[in-house]
Write a structure and sequence with these properties.
By secondary structure, the protein is α+β, with helices and mostly antiparallel strands. The chain has helices spanning about 45-55, 60-70, 115-130, 145-150, 165-175; strands at about 15-20, 35-40, 70-80, 85-95, 100-105, 135-140, 155. It has one domain (about 15-180): Gcn5-related N-acetyltransferase (GNAT) (Aminopeptidase, 3-Layer(aba) Sandwich), CATH 3.40.630.30. Helix content is about 30%, strand content about 25%. A hairpin with a 4-residue loop joins strand 4 (about 85-95) and strand 5 (about 100-105). It starts with 14 loop residues before the first strand and ends in a 15-residue tail after the last helix.
């Protein structure tokens, strides 16, 4: 989500979530449906096609921005039984932390556990590299993704004045408990 390794201000309009360090040992094991597998590759065409399939058109500038912050070997794809890329997620370097970002699953493959498994795989990758400060940024309307992040253990960050009301609405729509007293008010970087 970040264009610049040093910029947190770009996140102001996004919902932000952080990975609690205490959950490092409790991360769900990535379990994909039979015939699917996760690979580390850097494939612009597949990355763009997956994002386009979920109505997220990327321009060359965004691809260039991503390449500037993408960790080495930090792009992960889920391949189906025909070896076709059907999902993508990235490990991104920021100034003092790392981000799980650019997560997308082709719509016809959503709802079968691919997104959760892929996100868990990327978080494991980051933890194995020694990173403890992991965050993600998302949009209010991406409720299925937010539901996955909450189930994995990510915690909302109330980093701006409107976040409390936005998270109340999201939790209500997802039928999730609203636990703002335990949520951080800033991203620890």
């Amino acid at each position: 989500m970040l264009k610049d390794k040093n910029s947190f201000s770009e996140l102001r309009s996004h919902l932000v979530m952080t990975w609690p360090v205490k959950l490092a040992e409790k991360l769900p094991e990535p379990v994909l449906p039979d015939g699917y597998r996760i690979v580390q590759q850097l494939k612009r065409r597949a990355f763009t096609a997956i994002h386009k399939s979920v109505n997220w058109d990327l321009d060359r500038g965004q691809w260039k921005d991503l390449n500037g912050v993408l960790m080495k070997n930090g792009m992960f794809f889920v391949l189906n039984e025909k070896n076709e890329p059907v999902a993508v997620a990235c490990a991104i370097h920021t100034k003092n932390s790392v981000e799980l970002g650019w997560v997308a699953v082709k719509s016809e493959y959503q709802g079968i556990g691919i997104g959760k498994s892929l996100c868990a795989h990327v978080v494991q990758f980051l933890l194995k590299k020694g990173h403890k400060r992991i965050y993600l940024a998302t949009e209010d309307d991406l409720l299925p993704a937010i539901h996955i992040y909450l189930k994995m253990g990510f915690v909302p960050v109330l980093h701006d004045t409107d976040m409390l009301n936005r998270w109340k609405r999201v939790c209500f729509e997802l039928k999730q408990d609203f636990k703002d007293e335990s949520w951080p008010s800033k991203l620890q970087v």
